Amino acid sequence: MNKDAVNIYDIARMSGVSIATVSRVMNGSEKVSEKTRKKVMDVIGKVGYTPNVFAQGLGLNTMHTVGILVPTIADQYMSSAVAYLETELIKHGYDCILGNSGFDMEGKQKKTEMLLSKHIDSLILVGSTYAGDGSDTNATEYIRAAAKRVPVFIINGNVNGENIYASVCEDEKAVYEAATSMLRRGRKNIVFLTDSHSYSANKKKNGYERAMKSVGKAAKEAKDGIIYVENHIHRVRDQLLAMENLKCDGIIASNDMIAIGAVKYALAKGMDIPEDIEIIGYNNSTLAISCAPEVTSIDNHTEEICKDTVDRIMKILDGGEEKLSHKISVPCTLIARETTM
Amino acid sequence: MNKDAVNIYDIARMSGVSIATVSRVMNGSEKVSEKTRKKVMDVIGKVGYTPNVFAQGLGLNTMHTVGILVPTIADQYMSSAVAYLETELIKHGYDCILGNSGFDMEGKQKKTEMLLSKHIDSLILVGSTYAGDGSDTNATEYIRAAAKRVPVFIINGNVNGENIYASVCEDEKAVYEAATSMLRRGRKNIVFLTDSHSYSANKKKNGYERAMKSVGKAAKEAKDGIIYVENHIHRVRDQLLAMENLKCDGIIASNDMIAIGAVKYALAKGMDIPEDIEIIGYNNSTLAISCAPEVTSIDNHTEEICKDTVDRIMKILDGGEEKLSHKISVPCTLIARETTM
DNA sequence: AATCAAAATGTATGCGCTTACATGTAAGAA
DNA sequence: TTCTTACATGTAAGCGCATACATTTTGATT
């Protein structure tokens, strides 16, 4: 069906040179006289030749392509990250192939295989480097395997190993500070809502627990303040409404979707926001400002992290094997809105 | 960097057969004795051989890959469409390559080239088949060019031509009915908010205009009810607030983001929703329920359309050249929530 | 004009795979 | 046992390109 028809031999014949010369022209080699270059380019311009990437790849074993793996693209955070990454990669002449893995190990593994089989030059994993069930045992095994083939970059996840590089945001600190500021404003019962056991979710939980302990709560009490919910506005609301002895005046959520569920809960309870209850979301996504009241949220600088990640990829791919630090951290920023005092 | 090392010759040698036999085993040819098949599979299982897709593609000129082009993946509608498409394509053994084109013609054209150069078996365009400025002159030229190479499928867009297939939703009708129902409830001043000149946006505008005319409004008046805004919650709100002589008791928006901007406007004005003003969004996305009050929205059945599109692609790719209708329509559904009576 | 270095161009090989065609082999028929 | 046939396997060509190496051309120098 896809018939390119015109190949390098055609161009060579039509412009009266050898295929080597055509190849040189295509690749901008400097060992071509201006005259023949022009001659060849004219022919190409006329008949519209595009090199066959398969043939190129076969010889060079590279396709100038980066694979991006996300658990699901139908998520604000993921899709915006992909958009940033793609924009940045294009600038450097790289295309990207997307893999939508789902949250389960098997999907991730299969999609990683798929991407590798397409001879990507590097692999980017966005978020969720853990299996959905929280197990970590061999969850990272497939990542290490991938890293034997191409450099692997992880955005907001963490796996140590040869040829693996991570860019993370300081989630632990951000949640700790958010919780601490609530405490400072006199909140007594703060809970943390999350739907995930991902690396990043765990960091947030740690930040929450640390803040709770810092005001004298027992470890168990701090842990009990963590409530697992589904990543769905109405389900969060309903789950909280169903918890009869839930008494809280502060909520921190691991993403904005959940935070909005919390807002709906508070509204359903007839509480005043932020007087009766403060709520802080995460990711500072469009969702945060779509709600009324608009939700205070922690911005994790996705764009910055993505840009930085691409820069580092290029350092490895283009440039020499200059040593890169295997992990960099970016601080988060609290964006105050109407759900906090 | 990416060293597969083990190739078909290795496997052939290790299992004491010819490369042709290995190839037959890999491709499930029936002309292989059970014994040798097993022998080869054992070796493959042991050393982990994966065929080089370049080499395969060179010979076969297909990569079992479909290209998906979106103006931007950082958009609820687009990203969910991509997720549906990808899920469906995988089931049929096809991978997908994503192209993020931007809304301008040049980007679309370049990205289309990129995707085609990757030897996709088919191209899917999601939404926005028009140039951002509303011009249509040669906007569709690149699509027709692409269609000469592979079958092109358009989701929620419209281009006629050989080898081009479109799946659209009945936007015109949906908006007409939404507006009509508002009118029936006694609304006098209904406006339509949009940020786009896309095919689908134009259909919605037509539906609005038709509804207005049906209650005796002049053509000009109907046209004046269409207000162009930016696709950003706060900017929509501010733009509406800035229109001093805007008096309306009904708003229909071409997507949920804009609808929420309208909600914010109404709230800022101190209006009661839906008593003083009714608001209807479009796409029935997560945004619609993230707002308070939750926004009535028109569901355009993205999942259904995507599934259907993939089915049709497969009919063409796998099956024979059975004739497909070049355009199918799916009706929309109004999901009533708190912003309408 | 003769010489030589540098620049331009051409030739030929290999990348890993699929597949048409050639060859070999085992089972059934005579 | 010998021939036939169907089935199993092997051989080799070609997909389109980049590139090392070989060859030719150019132009500067003597």
Give a structural overview.
The structure is a homodimer of 341-residue chains. Chain A is α/β, with parallel strands linked by helices. Chain A has three domains: 8-51, lambda repressor-like DNA-binding domains (434 Repressor (Amino-terminal Domain)); 63-169 and 302-330, Response regulator (Rossmann fold, 3-Layer(aba) Sandwich); 171-299, Response regulator (Rossmann fold). Helix content of chain A is 45%, strand content 16%. Chain A contains 14 helices and twelve strands. Chain A has helices spanning 8-15, 19-26, 34-47, 53-60, 76-91, 105-117, 141-147, 171-184, 199-214, 219-224, 233-242, 256-268, 286-290, 302-317; strands spanning 65-70, 95-100, 122-126, 152-155, 164-169, 190-194, 226-228, 250-253, 278-282, 296-299, 327-330, 333-335. In chain A, the strands form two sheets. Chain A has a six-stranded parallel β-sheet, with helices on both faces. In chain A, helix 8 packs parallel to helix 9. Mean pLDDT of chain A is 89; it is low at 131-135. Chains A and B meet through helix 4, helix 5, strand 2, helix 6 and helix 12 of A and helix 4, helix 5, strand 2, helix 6 and helix 12 of B. Chain A binds a DNA duplex (30 and 30 nucleotides) through residues 4, 7-9, 17-24, 26-27, 31-33, 36, 51-52, 54-61.
Write down the CATH topology of the largest domain in chain A: Rossmann fold
How many domain units of chain A?
3
Largest sheet report of chain A: 6 strands, parallel
| CATH top level class name of the largest domain in chain A | Alpha Beta
Shape of chain A: elongated
Indicate the CATH architecture of the largest domain in chain A.
3-Layer(aba) Sandwich
CA-to-CA gap between the ends of chain A? 63 Å
Give the helices and strands of chain A as they follow along the chain. HHHHEHEHEHEEHEHHEHEHEHEHEE
Q: What is the multimeric organization of the chains shown?
A: homodimer
Q: Rg of chain A, please? A: 25 Å
- Overall pLDDT confidence of chain A: 89
Provide the spatial order of strands within the biggest beta sheet of chain A: 2-1-3-4-5-11
Low-confidence stretches of chain A: 131-135
Judged by helices, strands and strand pairing, the structural class of chain A is alpha/beta
Strand content of chain A: 15-25%
